[in-house]
Amino acid sequence: MRFQPALAALALLLVACSGEAPNAALTADRVWARATPPGAEVGAVYMRLHNRGDTAVRLVEVRSEAAQRAEVHTVSEIDGMMQMRAVQGGPEIPAGDSIELRPGGMHLMLMGLTQPLVDGKRFAIALSFDDGQTLSLEVPVSREAP
């Protein structure tokens, strides 16, 4: 009988800690990175991000030990020239919708690679959103899109 107060306190603590984030419906699929040649300083990561929640979220930070810096970039044609630019403020994923990060379009750019991205290997990446959520992913490396 002495354990009842301790068990009750533990149960309350578990319930208090099990609350979901405001929008716990963020997922990713089709995650991959293109293999890089030895000595490359930049790499790219692609995926589809899904927001099954009821409020829009914005990707505000990308971190990975595979690179010194990571940013969201987009490719567009300006005056007949293809240009790549950082997406200021990060892309928004509307409620109940998805965005695709793909070759030739919006993608995650890894700059200052700490090692080459080798076909068949994996590395970790963390995406942080404006609602406080973080999505941690294992990124498989391939020569071509899966």
Automatic annotation (TrEMBL):
Alphabetical UniProt keywords: Signal
Keyword Signal annotated: yes
Transmembrane parts of this sequence: none
Signal peptide (from-to): 1-21
A Pfam family recorded for this sequence: PCuAC
Alphabetized PANTHER family for the sequence: BLR7088 PROTEIN, COPPER CHAPERONE PCU(A)C
Protein name: Copper chaperone PCu(A)C
Record lineage: Bacteria, Pseudomonadati, Pseudomonadota, Gammaproteobacteria, Nevskiales
